[in-house]
Amino acid sequence: MANELSFDARIELPGGGTIEAAFDWDAASAPIAVLFGPSGAGKTTILRALAGLERPAAGRIVWRGRPWFNATDGVWLAPQRRRVGLLFQDYALFPHLSVADNIGYGLAGLDRPERRKRVAEQLALFGLEALADRKPRRLSGGERQRVALARTLAPRPELLLLDEPLSALDAPTRETLRAELRSRLLAAGIPALVVTHDRNEALLLGDRMGVLIDGRLRQMGPIAEVFGRPAGADVAKAVGVETVVPVRVVGCEAGLATLDAGGASIMAVVDGAVEGQRGLACIRGEDVSLSIEPPQRDSPRNHLRCTVVEVQPEGPLVRVRLDGGFPLTALVTRPSREELALEPGRVVWSAIKAPAVHFVPHVATKVVR
Amino acid sequence: MDWQAIGLSLRLAAWTTVALALLGAPLAAWIAFSRRRWKFLVEAVVALPIVLPPTVLGFYVLLALGPRSPVGRLYESVSGGLLPFSFEGLLVASILYSLPFAVQPMAASFAAVDRSLIEASWCLGASRLRTFQRVVLPLSWPGLVTGATLSFAHTMGEFGVVLMVGGNIPGRTRTASISIYDEVQALDYAAAGETAAFLLVLSFAALSLTYGLHRRAWSPWRMS
Predict the structure, then answer these.
(1) 3-class SS at A321?
(2) CA–CA separation, B21 and B102 (whole Å)
(3) pLDDT at position A314, please?
(4) Alpha-carbon torsion (A53, A58, A64, A68), positive or negative
(5) Is A42 an 8 Å CB contact of chain B?
(6) In the prediction, which pLDDT does A358 show?
(7) Which neighbouring-strand residues pair with A328?
């Protein structure tokens, strides 16, 4: 496993305050990484440091063995020389250039026929042929996003950096493009680091996720792990969902879907799921109730026989990690912990209402290109 | 009307405008984008001609261009002529005198270009110079037109500096405003009135163009 990106830097902000983050990223096995955190946590600053627009005060940044920044030797690679594609939050389309000229802007090094070919390729890929001669101000929000992404991809960068790629869109457009963005990124075959403050966006887009709080990178790991085993109470609070399991839709009837989570099956209320569809089932810890006796069968409710793996007090609550065929986390009160005598190894029954299971469609990482 | 003087003024203003477009744009770009601590000193020097009496500016330019100064000697050895009391000397003085009128509007419009557009250009591999040519300049054209119009109009009307550096040689350094002064001294109010009216109309037209442009400024490229 090769870490393609190795980031360890401290950035001092002009208005005071510092951003500190250290993480490695094996982009080959997890092509889309998400940098998640509340607004103002410093996510964009890290992205800008990667793009070469913000110079850290200390540390180093190495991409595919090439140092982009090293404070000790004074190495600093200009943005022009990093072959990085940065998608700005407001897209930063050149207002005086047409859609085609915007897309072709980064292709100045190519000769004219090759440049024209690449622009045509991108226009076709993003369904923008009819808009090629339009100026950005005459495009809708969704069209601008596609032009910006096409412009970023056209020079075939080695690394994509996306700053809140969906936040400038109105809600209906955002829903549509959110579903489409991951497939587009995977199809492009370029590793992408996406900054977002939206939990659904993080779940939907990412393979790996880093959580940034108050200028510190608190945790970085596979999506399910970060949600299931947050590194601290602040991370748990920021992510807000304790269980994230990869699932496959095996049945769907009257809005109630049966999800297969590696053997165990979960019922979920899902709108418009397709059989065979892959995705993530997300369950909040508060929505998992525990009992010693096998509960009465009642309608749409999941009952799982679980073994307690770990019990961890967390403020007024206790975080209980369970194995019910898949890793499941419950948050219970201290009295219930006593009552249920929760200790590792103990067998309990968990109940989760079907509407509390949130299904997020998620395209598998390995795609046929 | 003294057509010879008006012609000379137009020629001087045209050359000054061209020179300021070429020299002023890089200076304006430096002022707009540099993060040097002593930038404010350069800005103050550029703005000096706005507040300095033209005679003071003219006096120092005269000294600086004179045959005993390094600049004057260099010019004499190259061209064989003297800068003071020549059209070329006048041009140098005019460039200095109109510098703020060209540089300030240009710097303001360069600085107003959305920073993320410049950064987007860098990330797409364009050098700083190319970014300036392809993104900053096209988006700053109202500032460029304003700078050019103001330098032209300002040069057309200059008096004190011209008198100090150029004197009053018909056909060589006697500009429109000096001709008006001469005509009034000679009590030829009719001739003075015609030249004055010409300058008034020209200045008004130039300023109307500038302000009219700024009313609609940016609209061709506005995003929404």
Answers:
(1) strand
(2) 7
(3) 78
(4) positive
(5) no
(6) 84
(7) A322
Question: Given the DSSP bridges, would you call strands A208-213 and A32-36 parallel, antiparallel or unpaired?
Answer: parallel
Q: Domains in chain A, ordered, with CATH?
A: 5-239 (3.40.50.300), 243-361 (2.40.50.100)
Which residue from A80, A85, A135 is facing B122, i.e. has the nearest CB? A80
Supply the pLDDT for residue A228.
77
Determine contact: B114 vs chain A, CB below 8 A: yes
Q: What is the mean pLDDT of chain A?
A: 88
pLDDT of amino acid B217: 54
pLDDT digits (tens, 9 = 90+) for A308-366: 999 988 777 889 999 988 999 998 998 888 889 999 999 999 999 888 888 888 776 55
ipTM: 0.81
The rounded radius of gyration (Å) of the Cα atoms in chain A is 23
- Within 8 A by CB and 6+ apart from A53, the residues are A79, A86, B119, B122, B123
Q: Which residues of A128-157 are buried (b: 16+ CB within 10 A; e: fewer)?
A: beebbebbbeebebbbbbbbbbbbbbbbeb
Higher pLDDT, B120 or A279: B120
Q: What distance in Å separates the CA atoms of residue B79 and residue B70, rounded to the nearest whole number? A: 14
Over residues B123-161, the pLDDT tens digits come to 999 999 999 999 999 999 888 998 999 999 999 988 888
Cα of first residue to Cα of last residue in chain B, in angstroms, is 50
Contact A94 B125 (CB under 8 A): no
Class of domain B3-34+52-215: mainly alpha
* DSSP secondary structure code for residue B132 in this structure: I
Taking the Cβ of residue B112 and every Cβ of chain A, the question of whether any pair is shorter than 8 Å is answered with no
Other Cβ atoms closer than 10 A to B42? 15
Check: CB of residue A242 under 8 Å from CB of residue A227. Answer: yes
CA atoms within 13 A on the CB side of A98: 11
Domain ranges of chain B: 3-34+52-215
CA-derived radius of gyration, chain B: 20
CA-CA distance, A34 to A205, in Å (whole number)?
Answer: 7
Strand partners for A278: A248
Low-confidence ranges of chain B (pLDDT < 50): 223-224
Q: Does B123 touch chain A (CB under 8 A)?
A: yes
Q: How far apart are CA A172 and CA A168, in angstroms?
A: 12
Structure token digits, residue A73: 């030797």
Q: Is the pLDDT of residue A272 over 80?
A: no
Report yes or no: A246 at the B interface, CB cutoff 8 Å: no
The verdict on a CB contact (< 8 Å) between A53 and B116 is: no
**Could B123 and A94 be called an inter-chain contact, meaning their C-beta atoms sit closer than 8 Å?**
no
